[in-house]
UniProtKB/TrEMBL annotation:
Residues 31-128, 134-233 form the Ig-like domain. InterPro entries: Ig-like_dom, Ig-like_dom_sf, Ig-like_fold, Ig_sub, Ig_sub2, Ig_V-set, Zig-8. This is Putative zwei ig domain protein zig-8-like isoform x1. PANTHER family: DEFECTIVE PROBOSCIS EXTENSION RESPONSE 11, ISOFORM B-RELATED, DEFECTIVE PROBOSCIS EXTENSION RESPONSE DPR -RELATED. Gene3D superfamilies: Immunoglobulins (2.60.40.10). GO terms for cellular component: neuron projection membrane. PROSITE patterns: IG_LIKE. One of its GO terms (biological process) is synapse organization.
Length: 272
């Protein structure tokens, strides 16, 4: 679920901006924010993000969340001011956290968000949301040529993900493959596998086709739960047919050469 509320609560103490509303003896006398600096939250596209703001001694003041890039007010206390249903502000009384939740995070949600207290002057803190977008890559060429009867292994790899995909679905054309119902076919997922780039968070999905047949030719798509699909085109070549085609082609080539030689010889004789 991206950065969970528990992780947020554990690390907030050094993350938000201090208020300057202090009395002469050094104690806060009004609303203030706990922590200093800009708090960074990293989450994966499609998951939920939780942006923290720890407020103390709020009194009768309100807490607002603002998206910095366009100064759009997202929420005031628990009341939303944006039509996007993915955004919600909530308060946990025992902790003092006002948290902005963003459901099903999109790449465009990345950026700065500001938590504001309605004091005069205004007190505010910022949270920087980083959105990780995993990528799916094929292992090998996008066009595969195999001999009928051979074992075929099609692999894809998911890189750059904070969390491994919960599943990988394979398609043959537009039809989803349920490998447990097809004799000789199976799929597997290897999570947390180090790859050549040293990424230990990579996940490899494999589709294994035993004794490939001509009808198994076509497009195969690897579709992970957390990254875009990729497609490979499989060409299953019948051994006897290909051999016959090569023999026929060679015979035709020899016939053409023989004809050309005969015509050339006749031309030379007629000249002499």
């Amino acid at each position: 679920m991206g950065v969970g509320v528990q992780n947020v609560l554990a690390s907030i103490s050094s993350s938000l901006i201090h208020s300057k509303l202090t009395s002469s003896n050094g104690f806060f006398t009004g609303p203030h924010l706990d922590g200093h600096g800009i708090f960074n939250v990293t989450t994966q596209i499609g998951t939920h993000a939780y942006l923290p703001c720890k407020v103390k001694q709020l009194g009768n003041k309100s807490v607002s969340w603002v998206r910095v890039r366009d100064d759009h007010i997202l929420a005031v206390d628990r009341v939303k001011f944006i039509a996007d249903e993915r955004f919600q502000s909530f308060y946990v009384d025992q902790t003092g956290f006002w948290t902005l939740q963003i459901k099903y995070v999109q790449a465009r949600d990345a950026g700065l968000y500001e938590c504001q207290i309605s004091t005069e002057p205004k007190i505010s803190a910022r949270v920087h949301l980083h959105v990780v977008v995993p990528r799916t890559e094929l292992v090998g060429d996008p066009d595969r040529y195999v001999k009928a009867g051979s074992t075929v292994i099609i692999r894809c790899i998911v890189r750059g993900a904070l969390e491994p995909p919960s599943y990988i679905i394979w398609y043959h054309g537009s039809h989803q493959l349920f490998t447990e119902n097809r004799h000789g076919w199976r799929s597997q997922i290897d999570r947390g596998t180090p790859d050549v780039d040293g990424d230990i968070h990579s996940t490899i999905g494999s589709l294994i086709i035993e004794s490939a047949k001509k009808r198994d030719s076509g497009n195969y798509s690897c579709s992970p739960s957390n990254s875009p699909p990729v497609t490979v085109t499989l060409h299953v070549i019948n051994g006897e047919s290909s051999a016959s085609a090569v023999t026929s082609s060679a015979s035709s080539c020899m016939e053409n050469l023989s004809t050309a030689f005969t015509l050339t010889l006749m031309l030379m004789l007629s000249v002499t």
